[in-house]
């Protein structure tokens, strides 16, 4: 069992930066692939970015490539999402998810554990 807790959400202006954290407790975090998903009001949840258990590979949605960066510190059982050049369309609840996979799934139903989400709002 893995328990995930997101933090770092808030209000940021267009073009600003924000860093989200996903702190894990429970079984060995370093064995899990981790991803960030987001869900905007009235829209379906979408994959944002994922990182492998080792941190050596990552996969980004086209909408955030070049603006967002995912990383992880397995010694601290924490994953991070650095978000730069924010746009109003980035406004959403951001969720951290984890699964035991070699590859990085982009479908939410392949993830075993989810955090409660953190709200990110980008003002224009």
Mean pLDDT: 95
Structural class: mainly beta
Tally of helical segments: 0
* Cα distance spanning the termini: 40 Å
What is the gyration radius calculated from CA atoms?
A: 13 Å
How many beta-strand runs? 11
Task: Summarize the helix and strand pattern as letters.
Answer: EEEEEEEEEEE
Describe what this molecule looks like in 3D.
The protein is mainly β and 124 residues long. Helix content is 0%, strand content 51%. It is built from no helices and 11 strands. The strands form 2 sheets. Strands 2, 4, 5, 6, 9, 10 and 11 form a 7-stranded mixed β-sheet that branches. The mean pLDDT is 95.
Which keywords apply here?
124 residues, mainly beta, 7-stranded mixed β-sheet, 51% strand
Give the helices and strands, then pairings.
Elements: E1 2-7, E2 10-13, E3 18-26, E4 33-39, E5 46-51, E6 58-60, E7 68-73, E8 78-83, E9 92-99, E10 113-114, E11 118-123
Parallel strand pairs: 2-11
Antiparallel strand pairs: 1-3, 3-8, 4-5, 4-9, 5-6, 7-8, 9-10, 9-11
Short description:
0% of the residues lie in helices and 51% in strands. By secondary structure, it is an all-beta fold.
């Amino acid at each position: 069992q893995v328990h995930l807790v997101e933090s770092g959400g808030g209000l940021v202006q267009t073009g600003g930066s924000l860093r989200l954290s996903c702190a894990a407790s429970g079984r060995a975090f370093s064995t899990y692939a981790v991803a960030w998903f987001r869900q905007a009001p009235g829209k379906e949840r979408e994959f944002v970015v994922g990182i492998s258990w080792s941190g050596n590979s990552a996969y980004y949605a086209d909408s955030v490539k070049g603006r967002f960066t995912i990383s992880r510190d397995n010694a601290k059982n924490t994953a991070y999402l650095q978000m730069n050049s924010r746009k109003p369309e980035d406004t959403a609840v951001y969720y951290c998810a984890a699964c035991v996979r070699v590859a990085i799934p982009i479908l939410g139903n392949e993830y075993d554990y989810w955090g409660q989400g953190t709200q990110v709002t980008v003002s224009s």
